[in-house]
Amino acid sequence: MSKDKKIDASLVKDLRDKTGASIMECKAALEKAAGDIEKAIVYLRQKGKEKAVKKSTRATGEGIVAAYIHSNKKIGAMVELRSETDFVAKNAEFQELAYDLAMHIAAMSPKFLSFDQVGEKEKDEYEHLVREELANEKKPAEIIEKIVEGKIKKHFEELSLLSQAFIKNQDMTISDLIKEKISKIGENIQVGNFTRFEV
Fold first, then answer.
1. Is residue 106 exposed (0-12), middle (13-18) or buried (19+ Cβ within 10 Å)?
2. Is residue 3 part of a domain?
3. CA–CA dist 82, 109 (Å, integer)
4. Which domain holds residue 100?
């Protein structure tokens, strides 16, 4: 489909249903992607990330606390999800996001919000284990350093909520999910405290 061809309204509706973006944004994305819906979704995600970065410095003084209790009543989680306004905090999609995050926390048991929040003590202790593991490797020192650095980053990212793959959609991280919601809702959204319980 050439870019000057008219974009079919049903295609715009389909993209809107899949992404929740506005009609104008969907139309523009489809025009940019020459009618390819998958490319349009990628384009909208990228635009959403750019919007999220712009909004990330705005204060989040409102929000909600959401909880998830697993059906066996032995695992549960609570999460504080923050928004800029009370209006957004009452929004059904925002509340669904909070519930999904609580369910994800119950399932994946993250220990940190992000890699940046991992303490030096934890990093040092894990680095010591990695170096012991690599003690007999016959590789140049600079290669060993890169391996150690890579293993530390990978280990703690797997334990960090924002970098974990979302349990309902493994193609996106929790960070991507939040950025997508920021783009859709139009306000900064931040995860505050979270905790997980297990009997």
1. buried
2. no
3. 20
4. 62-113+159-198
